[in-house]
Structures are given as structure tokens and as C-alpha cells.
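Much of the work behind modern protein science is quiet bookkeeping, done one molecule at a time. Below is the pair of lines this work produces for a single protein:

***
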Amino acid sequence: MRTSEHMTRRRRTGAALLVVTTVLSMMALTPPASAAPVPPRYPLSILAGTGTSGTPTAGTATSSRLNEPMGVAVDSSGNVYIADRANHRVEKVTSGGTLSVFAGTSSGGAPTAGAATSSRLNNPSGVAVDSSGNVYIADTYNHRVEKVTPEGVLSIIAGTGTSGAPTAGTATSSRLNQPMGVAVDSSGNVYIADSANHRIEKVTPEGVLSIIAGSGSSGAPTAGTATSSALNTPTGVAVDSSGNVYIADSGNNQVEKVTSGGTLSVFAGTGSAGAPTAGAATSSALWNPSGVAVDSSGNVYIADRDSPRVEKVTSGGTLSVFAGTGVPGTPTAGAATSSKLDTPAGVAVDSSGNVYIANRYAHIVAKVSVGSTISIPGAPTSPVASTTSFSSRGGSASVSFTAPGSDGGSPVINYRVTATDVTNAGRGGQTATGTSSPVSIGGLTVGDSYTFTVAATNGDASYYGAESTATSSIVVVAPTQGDGKLLLTAGIPGTSGYATPGVALATSLNYPGGVAVGSDGTVYINTSYTGGGIYKLGSDGMLTRFAGDDSGSCPTGAGPALSAKLPNSGTAVTMAVDSHGNLYVPLPLFSCPMVVKITPAGALSIVAGTGVSGAPTEGTATSSKLTGPKGVAVDSADNVYITDSSNRVVKVTAAGQLSFFAGTGVSGTATEGAASSSKLNGPSGIAVDSADNVYIADSNNYRVEKVTPAGQLSFYAGTGVQGASTEGAATSSRLGNPIGLAIDPSGNLFIGDDYYLSYRVSKVTPAGQLSFYAGNGSGGLSTFGSSATSTPVEHPASLAAASNGDLYMVEFYKGVVAMVMAAAAPSAPAAPTSLVATPGNGSASIAFTAGSDGGAAITNYKYSTDNGVNWTTRSPSATTSPISITGLTNGTTYNVKFRAVNTAGDGAVSDAVSVTPRTVPAAPSVTVVAPGNGSASIAFTAGSDGGAAITNYKYSIDNGVNWITRPAPSTSSPLVITGLTNGTTYFVQLRAVNAAGDGTASTAVPVGPRTTPAAPSVTSVTAGNGSASVAFTPGSNGGVAVSKFQYRVGAGSWVDAGTSSPIAVTGLTNYTTYSIQVRAMNIAGGGAASTAVSVRPKASGPSIGVAYSSGKNGAFVGFTFVRPTGSTLVGFTVRAYTKGTSTLVSSCQILANGRSCYIGSLVSGTEYDIRAQGYFRLPGSSAVRETFESATSRVRVNN
């Protein structure tokens, strides 16, 4: 019961709710120069409860939980008694703030006489205390009233425990029916608000019950005899010192007064539910008044439950708000009129005039102390203004500041910024309010200069303190076209009061249910509840009523739209404007299901529906019932498409004929194919594109479907599974609750997803790609002027796209119409700049800095290679730097220009940049490979230069593994490679180098570096007869095998002499001295010559005859000798050598005429080698010359 009652209360409308977060409200007025006197404000504090429901605990009252406190009373000692309904208890709070349980146990049940804390109670709702300290309890669901003495003894004073009508007589024998309020007068008479009996009973101290007000029938009160007047669920009762009884007649939204003589009159309230207004109490609305109390001065306090406020009515009948702001919420310390209340159900007042308030669903009892008052706050400091983009209608600014040093005894709850137009004072001022710094202010004239002041209040608008002025003025600028920010169009965020004509940003919109926009930019807004109707918003930001007389009834036919009856829509709808400016409005309530048309001149007519809910039928549209039309769209032929709660989309032709367009009338899963054969499930929003394709928001199928003019249905967005949307392919993204649809001139479809896990507006391109357009997926108040995708957009239930692409959306429960401004019409892109060309092989890569895209994405580039004479479109398209141009001729210079392309056309032309395409050189052809000494000479023919001059060559000696750059750059042949090792085979490749890089390598060729052999070392030379034998050791072969050796005599020619040592030199003249050199030959040529050696050829030596000695140690040697012709013999020397060696042992000499001699000093029995040498003079010379030596003879010395 508590939940349904609470939710019903929260859904009711009529009271203006205040902004509850940092948002603005705006008014087109200038604050008065001086403030009028305002009533005093008293401080509110928390007496008991933590704000969380739960079981009470003894001790500090503000640390104990309560659970739906509904009644409160206070005794003469300042003890407070709380009827803690859902805890089935009554608690007592001492004047020192200590809480204890006074009556009741932990569970509900029937009461028992005796100790009060041992007796059960059942949902006690009211409590009162008499001058003796006896406490009286309205035990609602026990249908009784109990009394508890100061000693804690409980007894029953009225009721039998069974619900029923009361009977006069013994009170404990009379039935009661849900008594909710109780009061006691100074004589001890107890008064009972018997809610379900619609009566007030009186019980005397003797226990006699009588009826003092109410006939027992539920109904409106009538002045006169109190017992003859109907009441409607009286829930509270109070009595003053004169015996006048005051009744909180909850169901009648009134408080009545019954005199001691039994005459009833209305004391407060008009009988209509609504927000209270200061002034005559009987002229003010009340909203479920639930409790009432009266002080010693006759002032009456009303716990106005659903207002939610406490009002004070003086004995003279003047009403003022005593506590509460009108916004439900947890009470907070500070000024009572600045604190929220939540379902104030009971009220009491003590002898000092302090007031106690039971906040049922805040689970708190609050106290308002009248011993002190709250003053206004000081002025904020350091205000600074800056221009912003906040509002879609005119310019806007943001003013930041520092909170005032003094809050006046209650927290500051609002700041007011006032803008003064310096440029044109005649335009008046604008004001805006916000709960913290900075405050945004809109409705300013673009281009005008403004000054700004800021003031703070800790209460309502009557309590603003001193103003401070921003240090400098600013010139207002317009919002930036297409910057993706969410702008406020109409409404005060977070409020739901009556819509009033005037500045669109200064009025609540009372749950705006639909928005549409005409081709001229006029915006139409449908407000959903009381005070609703159709409003028209002009370019000046002013809101005017366009249709509806605020009666809430059905239209009866054609006539002026302003005087036509229009019911509240109660929900979000999709409206449409056709090409003629006619507005189409669906009326979805079952009590009046219709679609109406309103011309630009304000004439209303019925398009479809009879006003009676039912399934549509084909034929005349105004003769067909509709179940609950929620959306309407119009195509190019003025056919009207209507989404109906019958799970159909119907089509109404311009001639007024209705036919079924999509859906079978049975809810179910949609299927692709013929639209009229597919089921739908809760179709709501609808839109038509320029090709007359119809798009349906199939809410409960979690899809958007597209229906072609031929009637074929296909899925356009959503998977059919509920969930948060994701960017990418639209048919792969889930949708949560698609309701609002709109389509812009470019064919982009916008989807308002009213899903608590994914509040967003998404955009689906004609290519089927979904992206987020507004909303960050969460709920809450929007931050206007910020990126549309970074701020909450809650309940985007109706969308409309303007002809320029601006997208409007309603935030149903936040009370505003917002918009995202489309980009301005694009222009052709600006010229690219800073072109840098990099040549390639038959191509060029052009790097550049893109110019401005002109407001539309660059889709491609065009280029010219002949200085702008001819242009080529880049294929495939490319949009980022660098861009490659192909098909060019290497070596040819081109003058290249670029231009970007977007939807507006070809952009401006860039400056030219020159480029000569090129590639790396072709491979050289090696013609001759010449090995050298540690080097190789490579002769070659160059290949093609690739379009750029060859600047050098590189070579590799390891078959292309490693490459070496020619040290001294040169392009001529041959290329000499040095640093090689003779005798090693290398595989040499060449490649040319140009500006494009290293060219192709030539075919590898082998080469073995080499040189001529080193000089041999002569080891011996032996003279012969007309010859010489030269022995030697060869030197290094120079890296290649020696092919032969050569000698030369003196400076003569070289003569081949074999391939090994020794060599024979012949053709010499005996007894002539020669100089001989030897060299080796290899493929590289003749090597270095050896050191020259001398040799003197000679004839054969003497013939030695051996004679055996006749004694020891010697031998006779005889010989013959042939002397050279013409020479003179001088003598001989005969020598004995150790056998087989050149070791001399002994010798003997003989003159020219001798032919033998004896060699002594030899060892008998030993063999010796004997050689004889002759000495002579050559002809014409006196010098003695040695002759040739004889051959060796071996002799044995005899024993």
C-alpha cells in the first residue's frame, strides 16, 4: 500500500518543482530595484531519524532509524511523541534529544491492556497528549484509539477492533474504520479523525462517543451543520483553546473548521489539488492535507502531504508557506522554507510556537524553531562573465563567482545572475538562476554588450541578498554552427509546472511530450499534462499558445485551434509538419484517440479517429476508431501515416481514406517482407524520408523497420534483443526502447532510445552505420553548452529535424526541449598548403597540409601535373596526406597542383610543386675484369639512370652480401677496387647510385688479385765449361703459380730457364766473369730480379792419377793438365777433403813443370776426396788466375 501510494503521489502534476541540480531557469524581466518586505523565516533542524527506514534504537534520537513516521505530538515539558507507523510503535523523544520506545512492540497486532511497551499496535498514524501527560494513539489498522498514562499503562478508549461505522454511546463499543488522527482538548475530550468512515468523533473523559462532523458519505463538504456535511478521508484533527475543531480533509484537499456549536465551514483550500498560494486560505489550493495543528494564538498549521509543504493559516484566514520548497526530498538544516520535505503527514506545535513535522517517507521528524530567524545571505564575490554557447535561441553567457562569506544562517540554495544590455537598454534584462557557480544565462542578443550582477538566496526569490557586479562587460556571440553541443531551446530543466507563454527558457513545460519543426524553423511543443496544449516557439525565443483551451477534453470538430478542446497526451508523441506548414498531432489517450491537423492560420480539424478507442477499420479515416495513436508522419503526397496502439501503422490519404499500411493488429515479432503481413509490437515514433520510405519505431520489438512505398518491410536498426546500443552497423546494434524518430534532409535517421540503461539519440546514416549523436547513456539533467554526447539526455522520447538539419528533442521527465545545431551548409574546401613532393618510380608522393574542409568532410582530392591545365580525380579516393600520383614518366619534370573535394564541390587550388619522377638505376654490364696487385679493375657499361643522374657506384666483393661505396665518387669506368688480398678469389658486383637510391646489382664476376713474383734468393752459382749452374730459393709467387724461371747475363735479355732450381746458364766464354740474375714468371709477368751473382766459366779441370803411398799418412797424386790456349801455367794445388765433404784436411803444391805431389798428414786406411786446381796467366795479363778445378777423385791411404 505504501509503494503504490507513494508512486501515485510522485506522478501527480500541478506543483511547480524547483531545479534540483546545477541548471538554470530563466525569466525575461529585470529584478526590482528594491525588495518588498518578506515574512520571517525560521530555522529547521532534525529532531529524530537518520533518513533511512529501520527499527528504532534507544539513545540519541537523530541516530535512531524510524519507519514512516506519520503522527507527532508534544507535551508541556517538551517531550515529543512519534506515531512510527511501519514500526508499529510510538516513540518518545525528550527535550534533551533522547529517544525511547513508549508503546508497541516489534510486530503489528491487536493491543492488550497493561504495559504499553508490551502491547502490540498496528500501523499507528496519529498521536496526541493531554495536559496530564496521557498519550492518545490512533491505532489505524486495529480500528481503535488507545490511551497510555505517564506511567506507561495502556488502555483502550475507543473502538472494538473491528472496522465499521461508529455508533454513539460507549466509545469502546463503537466501531471505527482506520482512525488516522487524534486530538485532545483542555477538558480531556478526545477527537478522532475516522478516515474510512469519513467522520470526526468525540470521546468524553467518561468514555462516551459522539459524532461531531461528517455524514458518513464521501464527498465535498458543505457549510452548515457539521454532521450533515460530507467529508472525504479525514486524516488529521486539531482543537483550539476555544473548542473549535480543525479537520485535515485529505481527499477533499481542504481543511474545515467546526465550531463548538457544531457549525462547519471551509477554513483552507479550494477543493482542487495543487500548489498553495499565499493569501486568503480559502483561495489557495492544497494537495492531500494529512495533518493539522493549532497554536495558542489560533494559528493553524497544515501538513500538506503532496505539496509537499507545511502551511500556516492565521486566525484571520491568511495562508503562508511555513516549511518546504514544494520539491519532495529529505529535510535539511537551514531555513524551513528552503528545506525539502517528504510526505509531511503529521504536524504539532508546542507552547513556544515551535512546530514539529513528521516526514513519512523521509523517515524523519523535523523541528522548526521560532525563537530565531534566518537572514538573507551576503553578496557573492569575484564574479567573472564569459560568452558561451548554451541556448539555441540567441546568445548566452556564463558567470562564475565565489560564494558569499555569510549564508544568513541557512545554506545558499540559489544564485541569480542578471544581464543588462548596455548596447540597447530598451531590450530590458535577462535573469538566470543556478545552484552553484558558474550560472549560464541565455536569451541574450548576439552582438550586444552586457554587464552582469549576481546575488544569492537561502530561500525563495524574496530572499536574495546584495548583488555584486562582474568586473567587465562582454559582447555576446552566437552558438557555433555544427559544433556538436547540446543547446537548450525551451523549458526550465528539472521542473514540471504549468507552461506559460513568454520567454521559452523561463517557463516549465509540464512534461513536454512532442516536438515538431516547420520548414520556416517554427518549433511546436506538445505539453503532456495539466496546463498543457500545443505551444509555438518563434525565432525570437518567445513561446505562445498555438492550440488547446486547457480543458483536457476531446475536440468536437473543426474550429479555431486556440479554443479547441485538446486532452493531455500523458505520454510522448511524434508530431509532424507537412510541406504546407500544417501541424499533425496524435492524441493517444484511450478517452480521446484521434489525430488532428492545425493549419498555419490556426484552424483545427480532425484527420482520423472518432474519439472512441477501438481497432481501426479501413475506409473514411474520421469514421474509423483508433486505439491510441502515438506518432504521425507525412509524405510528399500528403499521405499521413499513423502509429496506433493496435499494433498497426495506418495510412490516411489526402482524400481522407484510411488503409492498413503495416502490422496485422496482433502484437508479435516483426518479419521482413510484406509490411501488412508483419506483426508489430508497440509502434510509436514514425518518420518519412524524401523518397517516401517510412520508418517505424517498433518499441517492444526493439527495432526500427523501414517500409518502402511498395510496402516491403525490412529491418533498419536493432537486433530484436533489448539492450544498450553500440556504434557500427545499425542492424547489429541493440536498442532498448526506440520511441522518437526523425530524419534530416540528408537522409540520416535519428532514433530516440528511451531506455534507462542507454538514454541516447543515435544517428543512422543512409549507409546503415549507427553512431551516437546525443546523450552519454545515463540519466540525469543535461549540461547544456557541452558536447551533446558527453552529457545525459534523459527520456529523448520525441525528435524533430529542421530543414537545415538541426535536431530537436524533448527530455520528457526533465521538462525541456533541447537541440543539436547542424553544421552550416558546406562550402568547397580551402586550398591545401605546404606541398612537398617526393619523386618515385614513374610516380610522385605529395605530402600536404589540408585546408579547411568547408564544413563537410573531404571525400577525395584531384591533382594536375601540368600546372592546373588538366585535372585527374584520385582513384581510389584518398583523403589524407601524402597522396601518390602514378603513371608518370621517369626523368620528366611535372608541375603538380592539388585541390580537395567535398559535397560542395572542388576546392581551391594549391600552389604548384615541381617533381621529376625517378627510380634507381638499372644494373651495369661488366665488360672487363682486370686483377691487380691487391686490387681489381672493373670495366663496365652503365645501365639506364632511372630518370636521375648517376652520382656514384657501389661494389660488393662477397656476391652482394655487403656493399661498399666508391670512396671518391665517380661515374666513369673502370672502377678500381683496392685493399684485396692477392691469391683470394672475389665475386664482384656493381650497382649505380642516383637520387632515388641504390640501383640493381650487376651479375657477379670472379676476380683473383695478383702481382709478379718476388725475387728468388740465389744460394749458389757453379761455373762450368762455358756455362754456369745457378741454384736459388724462389720468392713469393705473387698470388698465382710461377710458370717458369728466367735468367739474364748482365743487362741482357731474360732467357727462359726451366721451372725449378738450379738453372743452367750456357753459351758463356770460359775465363770470362759474368753477372747473372734470376727471376720468376707468373701470369702477371716477370717478377723481381734476384741479386746479381758473378761467375767465371772455365774449361774442364786436370786429370788426376792416384798413386798409393808406400808409407803411412800420405799419398802421391799424379795428374795431367791441358792448359787454356795462350795461357801460361803457373802451378797447381792438390787438396785432400774429408770424404763426401768440403772439409780440407791437407794439401800440396807443385810448380808448372811438375805433374805430381805428395799430400801428407793423412790417416792410413782412410778415404779422401782429392781435387787439383791449376793457376795460370791469361794472354796479355800478368795476373795469376785460378783455373777450373778438377773433378773429384777418391783415394784410400794405404796402411
